[in-house]
Design brief:
- Belongs to the ARV1 family.
- It is found in: Endoplasmic reticulum membrane.
- It is a multi-pass membrane protein.
- This protein is mainly alpha-helical.
- Helices cover 51% and strands 5% of the residues.
- It has 2 domains: 63 residues, no CATH class; 130 residues, no CATH class.
- The C terminus is likely disordered.
């Protein structure tokens, strides 16, 4: 997942200052490894390469920009497509459960029948359209605030991936709806706020492009 790259073009980034780096660590053979120090900020390029994935996940949940930079630039994680689909399903289910009459059915055997109803697919379509509109709006704002244009389509894809991965908070919609209580509406609002905060921190991982 991590390591030194043979290409002359830097592909890694310092999680502290976002400067490019040719490697994350240097292998001195015989099991001796040394983390690369960033030439710009004089800090380890990526301290998370020594961390357990659980710790990295916790740091991402705490919305630390360094954790997002590690995930986006220095770790090979390609689950953003599946994660986006699952988040849309969670949001569609949440919307479907809030439809009049849907919450009155408690028989678990009815779930498959409910999932096949057109209302569920309609909610999925609405959620997908709203997500597309939301991402389009973000890109319009970001492109208008750019200090310099994107160099390639890969940088556009990186921004897109960052937004999809940082929307993982939508997975909390399912337990919030299943364990329904008087504070469910408040929980849903807090989840939305958490997703927006995560999106903001993920975008900060690309601040070298923007004026904020």
């Amino acid at each position: 997942m991590y390591g030194k790259h043979d290409s002359k073009k830097p592909i890694y980034r310092c999680i502290e200052c976002n400067e490019e780096s040719n490697e994350l660590y240097r292998d001195y053979k015989h099991g001796v490894l040394k983390i690369t120090i960033c030439k710009s900020c004089q800090k380890p390029v990526d301290k998370y390469i020594e961390y357990d994935p659980v710790i990295i996940l916790i740091n991402a949940m705490l919305c630390k920009a360094q954790a997002y930079r590690h995930i986006l630039f220095n770790a090979k994680i390609n689950i953003h497509g599946k994660l986006c689909m699952f988040c849309l399903l969670c949001e569609a289910y949440t919307r479907w459960r809030q439809l009049p009459g849907s919450s009155n059915h408690t028989d678990p055997e009815d779930f498959i029948r409910y999932a096949k109803e057109w209302d569920f697919y309609r909610m999925f379509g609405i959620a997908a359209l709203e997500q597309a509109a939301y991402l389009t709006g973000i890109f319009i704002v970001l492109f208008s605030a750019m200090l310099k244009p994107l160099k390639s389509g890969s940088e556009f894809a990186l921004l897109f991936k960052a937004l999809l991965l940082s929307s993982y908070g939508k997975l909390l919609l399912i337990p919030a709806v299943i364990w329904e209580h008087d504070y469910t509406p408040l929980c849903l609002r807090l989840i939305t706020l958490f997703v927006l905060t995560s999106n903001t921190q993920a975008i900060r991982g690309n601040t070298y492009h923007f004026c904020f």
